[in-house]
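Kindly inspect both lines:
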Amino acid sequence: MNLRDLHYLVSLAEHRHFGRAAEACFVSQPTLSTQIKKLEDELGVALVERTPRKVLLTDVGREIATRAREVLNEIEQIKGIARRTVDPESGTVRLGIFPTLGPYLLPHVVPMVRERFPRLELLLVEEKTEVVLHRLREGKLDAGILALPIHDDSLHTEFLFEEPFLLAVPQSHPLAKRTQLKLNDLSDQSLLLLEDGHCLRDQALEVCHMAGAGEKSGFRATSLETLRQMVAANVGITLLPTLAVKPPVAQAPNLHLMEFSGHAPSRRIAMVWRKSSAMGSFLKQLAEVFRSLPHDLLDPHSINTAHAKRRRTA
């Protein structure tokens, strides 16, 4: 048994197909199939059920594949320790981030990361929260930028910042005429929300619950940009995170952004990684870069003024 054989087994468990698993391992299908058979002979158990259409792992095969994945992850940790001993600020970090934050945060923070760690290769993966968490647990990601709370005792959580929400309404909406907006002003409103699977949907539903508001039926958006355009088209109103409406993001026409008075509803953003990660000390340094965003980026005040200035100078 060697690491290569374990890698073949893990690949087969992920792809459930000898051809695709072999392609992912950059070997021929007969080579992979032969090594899996040798591994079965060495262990004295069947790891795989071979059917005409697909590959199924046996119960013991799934358990051994899980252990093999853990072994391979530990090997990567060992390599990472060695690399960072030679050069603590080099190497690769695989970072996951969810879609309603990534496009709006990364343009501001990636240049700061490059300036602070010029030799670091930052590999960014944009996925929904549950996918990021799954890949973190499997060792396919080194860290994730996620919204709190995260209920997983195996993960370390490093708080980064709190991002307020704003209310987006059409220019002609009755709420647009108000000089102040309180949460309970939404009590008789129905909001446009994202589809299931987006953490922003859960956060918006929590705000709706606190305000006594509801969800507009018959429509669920796939992205923040869809929500923005639907508001501009007079379909309804919605909540938008502050970073998603800050320049250089262009404001849609016929869209009025309203800041909540008092303590605004918000989401709390954190960097998370496995407690067992050998990269923990470096990831804390990386988190400091994310935490050092300019204060005005997270300040919803005068957003309409900022967009008006951009329109006048355009």
